[in-house]
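Task: encode each sequence below as structure tokens.

Item 1
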Amino acid sequence: MKKAYHICLSSGNEIYCRDNEDYIHCFNSLAIAIAETESVLLADSIMSNHIHECIRTSSLSEVIKRHRYKYARYFNAKYHRKGRLGERHAFTVELDGLYHTLAAISYVFRNPLHHGITATPLAYLHSSARVIFSKDIWSESSKDIIPKHKQRTFLPSHNTCPEGYRMDTNGLILREDVVDTSDVEHLYGTPRAFLYYMNRLSGEEWQKEQKQDNVNATPITIRIIENGISMQTMEQMLRNEHGRNDYRKMSDINLCEFIDKNILPEIGKTSVYLLTASEKQKIAQFLYLQNRLPEAQIKRCLAML
């Protein structure tokens, strides 16, 4: 019997995705793991240093293991890295009840907002929020799909694109083919209700609503969802939710791309994982003096473990 879970994977003191290609490969690895374990994806949000997912599955440990293994092989090969990618254990919460599940899915969709990456949940590209009620909310033209024989480049080695999955010209397996949109839309009920949940502020109202489920599950809150993620403080995430954030600041992906495309070529290195400790320290000092970036951000983008 399939049960619903919220899963959070943390990369610890480094980065999961350094460029757009990484985000694509990360989701494709998840999509294949979902198909291989006959699981159901309800929501996902892939951030630079952690990943949130809501999944219905009867093979929780297996779907996590397959996703992590497929992506780590790609990431390690690309960046000349070795070993496990991310913390040893995933953080999971079993979801029980309509409002408990809705709260978890909503927080996954709203994660980019909480971390100050985008001003609204629907503005973030690396999330499945944009495929929910898409016909009612978006007026986008149809996507260009690449043929099967061109898909291999964007898939984990020795894997094929599962039957029924399409891939766009960027190499991304379409989220609308992986996410059970009908199930998620049924949970929200209407497009207006979905938009209300996307814009609703955090607070006791969320917790009171979850009590209507009449189950013993601990109410879903930002503190529960963000367990073990040190990207930002709880206070800052709540300020971001109110729009009190400077969206002009350099994001992790912007900083990683600047390091990888501008700094590394100058010193003849192809990956931050090939830098010596002294080289990392010099680059860190340069980035801080030039941009006044947070020390924690500089360290994770340089993999200063």
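Item 2
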Amino acid sequence: MQDWFESPAGLYLLAWEQQQFELGVADIFGYHALQLGLPALDALATNRMPHRWLATTEEAPGTAAVLRTDYAALPFPEASLDLVVLPHALDSHCDPHATLREVARVLVPGGRVVISGFNPVSLWGLRQRHEHLCRRLNLGTPRLPPQLDFIGSRRLRDWLHLLDFEIEIGHYGCYRPLLGSEPWLKRWSWMDRAGARWWPFFGAVYFLVAVKRVHGMRLLEPAWKKIGAKSAATATLARRSGDNRMHMTNGNNE
């Protein structure tokens, strides 16, 4: 998988996904964030959480601490993470549904999950499904890694709904054919603009952001917000009143 992302098609895909993750996680706040897989992509680059981890089986330089763990058995307590990003983690894991359940377990209420995955309803998905035919016709187009499990966007949305996630963002990208040459990929760059406008659901990859909802739970505001609101209200009264007795802001009536 890592080797494929170093190919021209893989670099083209990484460039698009890097931009999506940078925009998607920049304004997600909290304390603890986790990336599952794909060290070639720094999905947490623009996120400002103080504690960030990368779960992978490969060496990965970067700002995040590296963990060696199974995605379906994360070493985190229940409701302890604010953000989990999965760049193709569901595509490459042997049990993607168990991985998603584990992500739901470790996320706090209101936490976010950000997912990218290959779209089976695309030119790339069609190429992958008809691998034997392409070989018989001697088509020299490259193929995706054979161990991938294509999970459709609609199927993934059903899984997220069952786990009490609510979709906030969802779109597709990378409409060029699966080609092995960088010059040929550049020649087909016009398809990215045309595809986004005319056939948006047929991009090679999808990108989703979902929030974990817990029914019957009401999030409490921090105490400092209430104190700040009271202070602001007292200051407003002092400005509006001509009575010298209202100039005290510490609650005394003396």
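Check on item 2: The chain has nine helices and seven strands. The chain has two domains: 4-212, 221-254.
End of task.
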